[in-house]
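User: I'm preparing a small set of examples for a lab meeting where we compare how different chains pack in three dimensions. I only have the primary sequence for this one, and I'd like the structure in token form so I can line it up with the others. Please keep the answer compact; I'll paste it straight into my notes.
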Amino acid sequence: MAGIITGSINLTAIPKDKIIDGKKGKYLPITITINDEVDQYKNQGPIVVSQTKEQRENKENRTFLGNINVVWTDGNFPSPPPRENNSGSQPENKTIIDDMASDDLPF
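Assistant: Understood. Below is the structure token output for the 107-residue chain.
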């Protein structure tokens, strides 16, 4: 499973209040969506500032940062890694669609 995705981010669009000070630097939580179809500008998905579940439920506007394009793939898309739940055991691998549905994403 391999692929190469390129993209660009509009640095002036980054909301300063969303930057997180970490131990090794400053971070911005982002979400990248890969669509099945290209848009009118030949992009395959957006890069946006990540939102909380409450922000998504309230249908708050997303902060658009840029676009991505898949430039190479071996034909397989990687599955998400297993996550630990509260009991400490590993759940079954879930598909990306299952994760998105359980997270109530609006897109």
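A couple of notes for your slides: Helices lie at 53-57, 96-102. Residues 87-102 have pLDDT under 50 and may be disordered.

User: Perfect, thanks.
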